[in-house]
Amino acid sequence: MILMCLLGDVSVTSRRRTTIQNRIKCCLFDHSRRKQQDSRCFHHSSSHQASFKSDTMFFSSNVLRLILLLCLVSSSFYLSTASSSNSTAAEQTLRPQEELQKLKLIREELQKINKPAVKTIQSSDGDTIDCVSTHQQPAFDHPLLQGQKPMDPPEIPKGYSKEDESYEDSSQLWSLTGESCPEGTIPIRRTTEQDMLRASSVRRFGRKIRRVRRDSTSNGHEHAVGYVSGRQYYGAKASINVWSPRVTSQYEFSLSQIWVIAGSFTHDLNTIEAGWQISPELYGDTYPRFFTYWTSDAYRTTGCYNLLCSGFVQTNRRIAIGAAISPRSSYRGRQFDISLLIWKDPKHGHWWLQFGSGALVGYWPAFLFTHLQQHGSMVQFGGEIVNNRPGGSHTSTQMGSGHFAGEGFGKASYFRNLQIVDWDNTLIPASNLKMLADHPNCYDIRGGTNRVWGNYFYYGGPGKNPRCP
User: pTM for the complete prediction?
Assistant: First the structure.
């Protein structure tokens, strides 16, 4: 309807436009040809002048209507295009806003994790160690711990002997500065924005990837472990030599640890874990670092590494969980160990951790767990890596020393003096130890027993090789 009103009678308009166009065409002839006068051009009768004036006005009116129509059509097209452009612009604008929201979330998380420092120590590896008042550590953010203070040290398991620690202990880089945290504080590695920006998810920062089964490799986790099961376990102990295996991707890691496990490998898995690891995503470098972990629901929503959530209660002012270990073992050279002991306090039921020769690090409160409130049903010792299959082939991330178990002492990595804690809070040899390697052509394991090392095994490997494509 709008189009018809604007154009009027199309046939009349067309005829009059033709007349006007002919006159214009004639009048625009070359000047030299104007001698051939055309009556259409130079007829000066008043009636024709009036007619010409009338036609011109009619034409002008319709031209204006046509222009108006074109404006409306153009406006409609512009609005449609502008809407599309604005939608694209909005999407582009959304990305910076998402980044700003992410930074805001990161800063909120950092405020929860990083507590006020009484003293700050700079480590040679770039770490900042904050000495935080013991009662202000992240653990006491937990509703069930608020207002409390750390528990007194428990009774050490019977049968514990420092004589088992016959090799040189590793220490931590930050402590080589000669500085230490004052009484009443604990050392905490400061978490930075860069640490959190490296994470694939801010919400999942400091947590392991969820797994359905321990021995499943569908998500790229591969293991070489010795384990015991079928009884009730109240702790475990071992000495592990420390290496600097190559980790080829930011989102892969290599670790060696002890697991104390209860529940099933589905939704209700409880684990307590401690050892050393290299994780570029978590720490931003490739130093081997002392770490802890826990979960009570198969890595779904509970638990975290180190002190990155409220859980583990630290009591030691000389050991920083998450700090780099030094020195490390070398191929055909000196071997350096860390000794770890995890056990359940018979009196209060909490799970304590000892690092090295008699240094109590702290404990996991019993209420964090379901099955582990009573005891463990399995203990594992060994290595784990993440294989992201770069380029479609197996990763070259190394486990342990990066050499196969068959190379033996000074070349392969090992666990020695494997023990478990029984119901009577007594350390006994980890007998009936079973061996499992998910991909023995990539990483393998080989065990044995002798008078000096008790139960032990060598483990590890290079990852990608002709037998592990």
Answer: 0.78
